[in-house]
Amino acid sequence: MIGETVTSGHRPRRRLVIVGNGLATDSLIGHLGTDHPWSVRVLGDEPVRHYNRIMLSPLLGGETDLPSISPRDESWYRARRVTVSPGKRVTGIDRRRRRVLCEDGEWVDYHTLVLATGARASLPPLPGVDTLAGVGGFRSLEDARRLRERCQARPGARAVVVGAGLLGVEAAVGLRRLGADVTLVHRRPVLMNRQLDASASALLRAELSDRGIRVRTGCDPRRLLGATSVTGVEVEEGGVSRTLPADLVVFATGITPNRELARAAGLECGAGVRVDAALCTSDPRIRALGECCEFQGNTYGLVAPVRAQAEVLARVLRGETARYRDPAPLTRLKVSGLDIHTLGPVDAAEGQQTLWLSDAAAGVYKKLILENGRLRGVLLVGDVRHSQWYAHALQSGRDLGALRDILLTHPTRDDAHETGLPVEVA
Q1: Structure pTM?
Q2: Cα–Cα separations (whole angstroms), residue 56 to 51, 121, 307
Q3: Given 125, 236, 285, 332, which residue has the most CB atoms within 10 angstroms?
Q4: Domain 339-425 falls in which CATH fold?
């Protein structure tokens, strides 16, 4: 019975309730391990257990299936004393009685509550975005199912993907694999402008074009066309208004943290649910992590910080002292064989140096940002063999001055006098 403390031998186990069942929850349970003082219940609003959202693009494109991207079986949860309740949407929090209300009327008691409610696609306020069929985001199994069914019902469907960030690029690739006629629209001149520079963007653009994806940069959507279903997107490009025909439109224009549950309960919120370095909200009995939370003014949409938060919170829940700090996010993308890894800033600030190597014919581009001999940023395209070494070097703050001449080509060699290919210094 949910209102009772679960016991194991003579040691009572406290009730830990987690709202949400995405990457943050999966990482948290994994880091908690099997030896912890909690009886855990996970309440997820999707009708399935945890699946790897990173694999939504291959799922959309038919390269994988749901069982293959659902890594946890019943024994994994049982070993960690975790009960998962799929399709269990939480609608309210009673902080005074320490319990949450589910949509089906069930009250679930907690000693500690963790909010891992994630985020949703942020749709721009364009006419028709909320009313036309064939328009939406790409964040969930339901989104992938909807897009797949629409493409299958319309062979050669015309798809417009708005936003060429990480998710937009993945959506475009998945739709192209389904046989859709895809146009990727981006407001900025540089694709994935938070992770890439102009040179890396050019390589990515060439790869996408080779796969049959049209890319339009400097292109700003103005409105959606259609009576009941979308038929096109009106855009402004170079000061000229034009219409892109569309049977479906996918917006990948950012995310909005799901903070509504926390705000309704009176928790302190900004853009997300505000937490301290121990992932504690303004209520000491409630923690938050992942895409729904806000720490020191930052919100999160990449994997690295979410996993780092999960590790910290797991230690806190085991009674240890741990504090979160934002890591330099390592972003990995693979587009039809083109590997891209980025870590930290990709443009040098004042007082920093840039080392770069480019081989367009081989599809290879490497760029390192250094400051006083220490690595501050990494951008690798095509050749990503040493990305983990660079990540360790950046996080450790190691002085790499002695390795400068080989840093782009053979960074793991100890002989600092051996040179590789020529290195340009900006």
Answers
A1: 0.89
A2: 9, 14, 19
A3: 332
A4: Enolase-like; domain 1 (3.30.390)
